């Protein structure tokens, strides 16, 4: 009778604490996953450093170039299309409010800074996440399921060196270039719609843009693009190597990669913005 009474007394408390237990478990899983990605990045960084300091260690230029073509070159068209459309949308949306104050030409000032600092690399990174990040995770995950990773290790070939490093380098280099391409396409769209639909002369648009936008704005976008590409590469490779459970595991890794990459990119962009804002205050 006593044991039954104790169970009845403890059950409401257990139900009350269950959400906290679930939250704690999820937090530990997230921290473990972040730690795994950091360790993977450190391993990749170590191999790159060895290749730079030791001629006997080679990463495989052909593999890196192949991944850049697959990840970056094939993404140019879709990134350009999306960025061009965003440039048109922003210009058309900003023009009416500015026109109410008789400052429609200042759309060039806003577009130039917003695109170079934020939207150019951000749009490119989000598109690259869906286009290449998911592909990398699925590719490596399929290798895990088909035991190709174990075959590499059986032949004393390090998977990080031969699979992860080329993809991380390719994503970083490609995203740096795609950020510039994205910004260029968005600004080109803004110039086009300003001349044809808004009646803003090219000379006025260009003068306002060059007056407002500085070299630091362009460099900020370039640095962001490189960091976003690094995040995409590490997260995609990390999720791919964690695959288990066959085809369902590959699908889950692909989904997780897209979600985690977008969250990581937005949080990194927030950190960059806060840092640059603090630096401007000082």
What does this structure look like?
The protein is mostly helical and 282 residues long. The protein has one domain (37-281). The chain is 88% helix and 0% strand. The protein contains nine helices and no strands. Helix 1 packs across helix 6 (159-198) and helix 3 packs antiparallel against helix 4. The longest helix has 52 residues, at 2-53. The mean pLDDT is 87.
Name some characteristics of this structure.
single chain, mainly alpha, 282 residues, globular
Summarize the structure.
The chain has 282 residues and is mainly alpha-helical.
Annotation, overall tally of beta strands: 0
Helix content: over 70%
How large is the share of residues in beta strands? under 5%
Helical segment count: 9
Mean pLDDT: 87
What is the molecular shape?
globular
Oligomer: single chain
Order of helices and strands: HHHHHHHHH
Biggest pleated sheet:
none
Structural class: mainly alpha
Total domain modules: 1
User: What gap, in angstroms, lies between the N and C termini?
Assistant: 71 Å
């Amino acid at each position: 009778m006593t044991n039954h009474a104790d169970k009845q007394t403890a059950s409401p408390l257990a139900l009350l604490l269950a959400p906290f237990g679930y939250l704690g478990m999820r937090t530990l899983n997230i921290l473990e996953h972040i730690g795994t990605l950091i360790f993977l990045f450190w391993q990749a960084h170590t191999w790159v450093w060895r290749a730079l300091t030791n001629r006997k260690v080679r990463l495989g230029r052909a593999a890196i170039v192949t991944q850049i073509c697959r990840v970056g070159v094939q993404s140019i068209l879709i990134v350009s299309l999306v960025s061009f459309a965003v440039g048109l949308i922003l210009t058309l949306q900003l023009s009416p409010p500015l026109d109410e104050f008789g400052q429609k030409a200042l759309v060039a000032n806003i577009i130039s800074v917003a695109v170079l600092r934020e939207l150019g690399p951000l749009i490119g990174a989000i598109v690259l996440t869906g286009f290449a990040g998911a592909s990398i995770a699925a590719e490596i995950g399929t290798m895990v399921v088909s035991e190709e990773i174990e075959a590499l290790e059986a032949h004393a070939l390090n998977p990080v060196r031969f699979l992860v490093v080329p993809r991380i380098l390719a994503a970083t280099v490609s995203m740096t270039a795609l950020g510039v391409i994205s910004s260029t396409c968005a600004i080109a769209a803004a110039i086009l719609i300003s001349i044809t639909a808004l009646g803003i002369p090219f000379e006025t648009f260009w003068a306002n843009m060059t007056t407002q936008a500085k070299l630091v704005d362009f460099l900020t976008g370039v640095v962001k693009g490189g960091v976003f590409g690094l995040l995409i590469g590490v997260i995609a490779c990390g999720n791919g190597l964690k695959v288990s459970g066959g085809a369902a595991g590959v699908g889950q890794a692909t989904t997780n990669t897209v979600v985690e990459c977008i969250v990581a990119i937005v949080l990194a962009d927030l950190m960059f913005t806060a840092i640059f804002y603090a630096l401007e205050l000082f």
